[in-house]
Amino acid sequence: MRASLLPGRIVCVASSCGGYEAERGFNPNSKDLVAVTSLSESSKNTENLNISESQQNGENLSFNAWKTIAYHSLEVAEMVQKICEDLKLTPELKDILVMAGRWHDWGKAHPAFQGAMRNSNRPQRNDLAKGPEGSWLRPAGTYRFLDNSDNRPAFRHELASALGLFALLAAYDPQHPALLGPWKDVFIKMGRINEESKLNTQPSIRVKEVLDCSEEKFNLLVYLVASHHGKVRVALHPAPKDQEYRDRDGRGLPIRGVREGDSLPSIGLDSNSTNVPETFLTLSPASIGLSTATGVSWRERCIGLLERFGPSALAFLEALLRAADVRASRLKTNDPALPPEAN
User: Fold this and answer.
1) 111 vs 25, 144, 224, 253, CA distance in Å?
2) pLDDT tens-digit readout, 160-172
3) What kind and span of H or E run contains 205?
4) I need a labelling partner for 202 at 20 to 30 A (CA). Which of 40, 87, 107, 142 fits?
5) Do the Cβ atoms of 230 and 322 come closer than 8 Å?
6) What is the value of pTM for the model shown?
7) CA torsion angle for 320, 323, 324, 330 (degrees, to 10)?
């Protein structure tokens, strides 16, 4: 029985059996009668859960003094490193989590996210991660480009971050083991592969860390980046608001507010490295089967992670990055890249 208790599983047990404490949850040593939850209390819990699920585009964690993506990401990376050290995680897992902390909010550079923050005090930059509550568009969750040329109401910045990592590999090394490497010969014989990389520039330190990932390491990295808000996990599919989008240029519908061919501008991720180059996003990982751009599908990558870690361990790793992000988002620190009046 114990081995079958997994996150999300519903287990019905007679309250007289004990084994549960309201403050701690499951406790096999407890013999006390478990209090029966009243119907009204249960309805309230269900209502709260429904409210949480409906907050597709909530940005409450982004309400803070102005901060850049680079500075916030540095704080998250430092926070998750401390958590990993306190928990004595293996060096490999710690490295991946710290790397995920550095890249988790890169997608906030997308014009849909940048356009959601508007007031007279907004720093004129394209790399803002945080802004005061009063600077956000209303109603909450409206992601309109700064030039008002487009609107993506279902936008999820973490998906843009994850797809940006795919784009980096494709730009520097299309035959990377996490992309087309295992299928190179097949695609060459089909005449459907470009053996030349798109970028010949020297990658920055942070980009090189991504390029140096093995297939397994990259899959975990990109999954943690995508899942750190709990809205994007093992499936990439359009939200209801995506399906209401009007395609005027033939690029198709968005997935979580991200469209085929969207770009992330060149920005800095920290003060010790050159800017990440501009990248162009593709929704290819959402397709079933092999893609000539990104290799195996997102679903297949996630199945591999579940087989490797199991649902409980994977959820645990998600929770560590999430905890670090929440803690860092509450810090009242000043971003040195911004003028004092912006802090």
Assistant:
1) 43, 8, 23, 17
2) 999 999 999 999 9
3) helix 205-211
4) 107
5) yes
6) 0.83
7) 180
